[in-house]
Write a structure and sequence with these properties.
Elements (H helix, E strand, L loop, with lengths): L33 E4 L2 E8 L9 E7 L7 E7 L23 E5 L11 H15 L6 E11 L1 H12 L20 E5 L8 H7 L15 H6 L6 H7 L12 E6 L7 H13 L4 E6 L13 H15 L10 H4 L7
Parallel strand pairs: 4-5, 4-6, 6-7, 7-8, 8-9
Antiparallel strand pairs: 1-2, 2-3, 3-5
């Protein structure tokens, strides 16, 4: 399964009206918050679908002192092979101190609900957060998303399908948008149709999955063999790439044994061909996290990315020289 740990921890014109709630939208009252760090408080286990599944909850982090004006929102989607993992603790909760509201989203796992349940949950959470923007001081016109591994896949899918009504909406708040301004993807799968061949072709790693068996999280997510192209297309962010996709920062190790590095190369090429802003940060020698992902320079890259494309700050986003991130690859 994809076990992810983010080290730190992603257009404004023409969409403001889409983010404005109808007059009859009533925000939920805010539950009691607890302070979790200096200047940061959290409301835990908020249901984003009334009467929904136990997994359909999120945690919200925001300043102890109410801001003078609404703050941009960054949403974290955790990894775990769509079969495990947890929204808590949130690896990007510290971004509250950088001028953001942060939400960490839970979703139904594939053992309980097959795709598209997971993306439907994530999009429902985004709409709920926009509907409750006043309660949590959220600037609903400035929303980004990020996650690693399975969470990276769902984050990329949020980015490529947002605002397109690709999947049936659940949970209400249909007057709210599920579109985001930026995506930060840590080594998430992007094309289930090509992943098997890419894993076979990757000389850097030894594939650890037995595809199309009960132990394979890819086929488990869609509930069928990966030769079913209709299903693999539907679950794949690359299938929805278009010119109006938001900017995306992709971070991926060359020796990833769970998600082939070629997945990110393929997605970046397809996005660039459509004119989408894509930054692919290569981590020579790194696997599925660890290694170069622990380098301190990474924090600045991610911060600048969100500041530029979510906050709208006048900052330069530059990839880190690969030599600065290179590590000895794991032994086969």
């Amino acid at each position: 399964m994809f076990l992810t740990r983010l080290t730190i921890c992603a257009f404004l014109a023409g969409i403001t009206l889409a983010f404005t709630a109808r007059a009859d939208t009533k925000p939920a009252p805010r539950p009691t918050a607890v302070q979790v760090a200096a200047g940061v408080q959290m409301v835990k286990d908020v249901s984003y679908i009334e009467g929904g599944d136990e997994a359909q909850k999120l945690d919200i982090y925001f300043p102890v002192k109410a801001p003078e004006s609404p703050l941009p929102l960054v949403i974290h989607i955790h990894g775990g092979g769509w079969m495990g993992g947890s929204k808590f603790p949130c690896p990007i909760a510290h971004m509250v101190t950088k001028g953001y509201i942060v939400a960490s989203v839970e979703y139904r796992f594939s053992q309980k609900a097959k795709f598209p349940a997971q993306i439907q949950d994530c999009q429902a959470a985004i709409r709920w957060l926009r509907a409750n923007r006043e309660t949590y001081h959220i600037d609903a016109t400035r929303v980004g998303v990020g996650g690693g591994s399975a969470g990276g896949h769902l984050s990329a899918l949020v980015g490529t399908t947002g605002g397109k009504n690709v999947f049936p909406k659940i949970g209400g708040h249909e007057d709210q948008s599920d579109k985001v301004l930026a995506v930060c993807d840590f080594y998430g799968p992007k094309n289930f149709t090509s992943v098997v061949q890419q894993a076979q072709d990757d000389q850097n790693v030894r594939n650890i999955f037995k595809f199309n068996t009960p132990s394979d999280p890819y086929s488990e997510l869609i509930g069928t063999n990966l030769s079913d192209k209709a299903k693999t297309d539907a679950v794949s962010p690359i299938h929805y790439v278009s010119a109006d996709n938001p900017p995306i920062l992709i971070l991926h190790g060359t020796h990833d044994a769970l998600v082939p590095y070629a997945q990110s190369e393929e997605f970046a090429a397809a996005s660039k061909a459509k004119g989408v802003t894509v930054l692919l940060q290569k981590f020579p020698g790194s696997g599925h996290g660890g290694g170069g992902f622990n380098k301190p320079q990474l924090g600045g890259l991610i911060q600048n990315f969100f500041d530029k494309y979510v906050k709208g700050a006048d900052v330069i986003v530059e990839l880190i020289p690969e030599a600065d991130l290179a590590v000895e690859p794991p032994k086969k």
